[in-house]
Amino acid sequence: MATFNSRKGAILSSKAIAEAASWYCAIFLVALILLSIFRDSSMIPNNNDHNMIESNHFLSSKPCDEIYVVGEGETLNTISDKCNDPFIVENNPHIHDPDDVFPGLVIKITPSYYHT
């Protein structure tokens, strides 16, 4: 009879451990969800910030890549300011009219610290 009670106690003990572990996992997941919500809401630009570009590029904090795809609402001036490349037109001979920039246009970026 003693072995039956010890097994029953072991089963109850393992159930308590499993239940506690599941509660800790649930609390951890809720904390991660809340953290990601607050992080995402802090990255949304407000209407007073005129330096933010209204495109899919505003969330990336890394510098511009050498190959850049123009986003919605961007101009060569905003791209030049963002990427620190004042010679976009000179380095991209396929751009015949600087005012004719459209989403999806692929341009080469050479930041000014590469220029001599």
UniProtKB/TrEMBL annotation:
Domain spans labelled LysM: 68-110
Family annotation (InterPro entries): LysM, LysM_dom_sf
Source superkingdom: Eukaryota
CDD domains: LysM
Keywords annotated in UniProt: Membrane, Transmembrane, Transmembrane helix
PANTHER family: EMBRYO SAC 1, LYSM DOMAIN-CONTAINING PROTEIN
Name the UniProt record assigns to this protein: Peptidoglycan-binding LysM domain protein
The organism of origin for this protein: Medicago truncatula (Barrel medic)
